[in-house]
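Thread: FE2/S2 (inorganic) cluster complex, take 2
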Amino acid sequence: MSNQMYRQQMLDHYKNPRNEGEMDNPTHTSELENISCGDEIKVYLRVKDDKLSDIKFQGKGCAICLASASMTFEDIKGKTLDYISKLDISNVEKLIGIELSPSRKKCAHLGLLTVQNAINNK
Ligand code: FES
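Output below.
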């Protein structure tokens, strides 16, 4: 994909976040804040047979934060907890396809970190 296409994809996820909302009876939840700006993401997970069977999220953040969360959550739905716990910012960068400055990496990383935190807290 070209840079332009990656940017359009990102804008689309920002405007129409996938899996946005709340969930009744999640098996795991977590809420994390990006301390450098105060933005935050809350996730609701449903884990079944060691796999992430469903995910919903709510968040307040910049375009990179929310678009990255939307793309990451779409990507990890259905994957094993073991697989998800090994992901890092480089996987998020590959998904969004845009090179990020260190402070922007924090924005893009927030969604994944929130899910990993939810998994580790239970
Ligand atoms: Fe707050 Fe990006 S500026 S998450």
